[in-house]
Amino acid sequence: MIWIDGQPEARLPATDRGLAYGDGVFRTLRVAAGEIPWWQDHYAKLHDDAARLALSCPTEEVLRRQLEAALAADPGASHAKLILTRGDGARGYAPPQGSPPRLIIMTGTGESPLLAKPLIARWCDLRLAIQPRLAGIKHLNRLENVLARAEWSDDAIAEGLLMDTGDRVIGGTMSNLLLWRRGELLAPDVSGAGVAGVACARVLHGAARAGLRVGVRAVAAAEVMDAEALFLCNSLAGVRQIDHLDERSWSPHEMGAALLGCLHESP
Amino acid sequence: MIWIDGQPEARLPATDRGLAYGDGVFRTLRVAAGEIPWWQDHYAKLHDDAARLALSCPTEEVLRRQLEAALAADPGASHAKLILTRGDGARGYAPPQGSPPRLIIMTGTGESPLLAKPLIARWCDLRLAIQPRLAGIKHLNRLENVLARAEWSDDAIAEGLLMDTGDRVIGGTMSNLLLWRRGELLAPDVSGAGVAGVACARVLHGAARAGLRVGVRAVAAAEVMDAEALFLCNSLAGVRQIDHLDERSWSPHEMGAALLGCLHESP
Hints:
Chain A has 267 residues and is of the alpha+beta class. Chain A folds into two domains: 2-110, D-amino Acid Aminotransferase, Chain A, domain 1 (2-Layer Sandwich); 114-265, D-amino Acid Aminotransferase, Chain A, domain 2. Chain A has seven helices and 16 strands. Chain A has helices at 17-21, 39-52, 60-73, 143-149, 198-209, 221-225, 255-265, and strands at 2-4, 7-8, 11-13, 24-30, 79-85, 102-108, 120-128, 159-164, 169-172, 176-181, 184-188, 213-217, 229-234, 238-241, 244-245, 248-249. In chain A, strands 2-1-6-5-4 form a five-stranded antiparallel sheet. In chain A, α5 (198-209) packs across α7 (255-265). The longest helix of chain A has 14 residues, at 39-52. The relative contact order of chain A is 0.14. β3 (11-13) of chain A pairs antiparallel with β3 (11-13) of chain B.
C-alpha cells in the first residue's frame, strides 16, 4: 500500500522534484510484527541525510504517526519504504522557498535477495564516481546502482560489489560490505562514494563495544579476496556471510553469529 | 499542462523508477509558434541518452504525436519538458523486463534566466563527480545541479559555472559554456561530467562548417577567465554572452551574433 503525506494515495504530482532531479532521500525499513526495529537509528539517518541536502525533515512524531497508520492498514507488511522529496517545484534547479517536502510511504512484502542460501556475489564493472557532497547519503540519485545491477541477470547472484573510480572497494549495490581479516573487522570508507547504512553502523558500533578491533578505511579488492570472511548487511537482511564471490568461496565463519549479535544488541 | 503517456494527467504512480532512482532522461524544448526548433536533434539526443541507459525510447512518430497534442492544448506554451522514465518497478535496482517506459510531457511559459541583461554568472564551489558512464546524458540524477544552484540566492545571478573534481571546467548548471579565446571556439570536454547539450552541439557544428577553429578539450578555470568572450547556450536561451563572471567583466563581442547564426543555420 502507498501513502502520500499521510493519506492513502498511490500517485503523486509529476511536478515533484524527486522525479525531476532525484531531489530527495529514502529509507528501506524492515517491519517485524508491526514494529520497525532500530527506528531511532533510521530516523536519525533520515534527518541527517535530509540536512545534508538542506531538505526539511518531518518531526519524528509526524513520521512515526504516518508509519503506524500505514502499517496498521497493511498488517502483513514485511518492509516499508519511505521517500522524502523536496516537494513540488517550478522548472529550474533552484530549491523552492517554503515549499513543503513530500513524504511517501510504501508498505509491502517479499524477502531480501541477500537471504538466499548460498549467498552469491560478483564484482561489478561499473566504478562509482567520487562525490563527497553526496557520499553516504541514501538519496534518490541511484542511476549508478541501476547500471551496476543491470550487469547481471542470473537470479542466483544476489549482490554485486562496487569499487569507486579510484579502485577503492565501496560495498554492494544495496548493502554494505564488512571484511573479517587478520583479526580486524574492516568496513570500506564511504566518504567519497556509497551509502552509510544503518545496519552497518550498528554492527560496527556493537563490535567496538564488544572489544573487537574495528577499522573504517580505504579497502583494496585484493583485501576483499583474501579476507577470512565477508559479510553483507542492510536493514532487511541483517548481516549475511558471502558464500561465493566470483571464483572464490568461503566456509561459514563463526564471526557471522557474532556480528548478528552486534547488530541486534547495539543500543 | 501535463500529459502522461498521451493522456492529460498530472499525476503518476509513486512506484515510477524515475522517482525511486532517477531512472530516466529528459529534454527541455523551446516552443516557437507551436513548433519545436531542432526537433530532429532533440529526438536523436533523447534516443541516444535512453540507449546509454538501456531504456526503450518511443519512436519519433509516437513522441511527435504526443507533443503535438500537448502543444495544441496549450497554444501559449513557450517550452515543453519531456521526461522519459523506465516506468514502474518493484522494489530493487534490477531494471524490470518488458515493463513499458513512461513518457511525461509538461508544457509551460516563462523566460529562461539566461536571457537576463546583463548576464551575470558566478563560479560554484561544488565539484562535479567524474562518471564516464553517465557523463553527457541528460538524466534524472541531478542532485549535483540542485546543490550547485543552492549556492546562491541572488536572482541577479543567472548561472553558476562548474568544475569537476579534477578542476576541469565543465559548464553551467543548466547550460553549456563556450569560450572564444586566441582565435578558437573552445568547448569543455563533457566525457567525464556534465551534459552534452543540443544547442552547444549545433553551435560547434555550425562554427566548424563556417570555417572557425573549433576545439573540444579539457579547459582550465584560468582559460575561462582570460577568454576574449564567454558564451552560455541551451535550447531555451540560444547563445548568450556572459557579461560578468564574479569580478571579471566583458564587453559585447562580435562572436555573439556569429554563434547565434551558427546555432540557427546548422542543418
